[in-house]
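fyi for ur records
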Amino acid sequence: MPTTDHLRLESATSRVEIDLGDGGRIRTWHIGDTQVLATTGAAYARGLFVMAPWVGRTREARFDVDGRTVELPATLAPHALHGTVWSTRWESDGDGWIRADLTDEWPFAGFVRQQIVLSDTGLDLRLELHATDEPMPGDLGWHPCFRRRIEGGEPAELSFAATTMYVREADGVTGRRTTEPTPGPWDDCFTDLTDPATVTWPGRLAIDVTSTLSHLVVFDEWPTMVAIEPQSGPPDSLNSGPHVIHPGQPLVAESTWRWRVPE
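which gave:
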């Protein structure tokens, strides 16, 4: 077990610091001497953190399951934001894994595990959402908060390929209707993806993100940070059709985050 809340990984070209006490997030990621993650602001606007057991916004902080209505914490009132594990404590789980139990804010027993591997070219992440006592609904994903600018350079540019975009309703939550993608700025969910999605700081650095997941939220509405968020389903999936996770059969995702100098 660590003697500190912070774990540090280093390669020949980069280093990351993981804050177990602050949602198990990757708090900093330096590539060379360049910090690519936002490090200040609200908890949902800094670092690289895990979303589980739901992703994005859950409308009105409630959903129905097995004939009952479940109330969730309205962390972005009136909605419930990004699950529970991004705001709880994680623990070291051996062999490069970290783990967080699902809290009492979620009505099902379970836990989340993540393995973080740092190499000379990027990050390899594996994420598992486990049910322990009974089947439960759920989704998972990653939420990186990239700096809009690095070291005074040009603002970051986002690129991705998708043929389908979910329609955001008047309350800001993704609905069930879909359409063809529209030009940004975005706070939107896309599917039918062609990987990778890329954040590029022109002339300086690019990070290509690939994953085994079917959905991607793209966010670039703020002047300080941008995000490309691989997810196993769309926001509000607890109301539109989540995965069902059985004990001993976790929902599993893998993702690679490769950096390069753009041409």
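The CA atoms of residues 190 and 210 lie 14 Å apart. thats all i got for now
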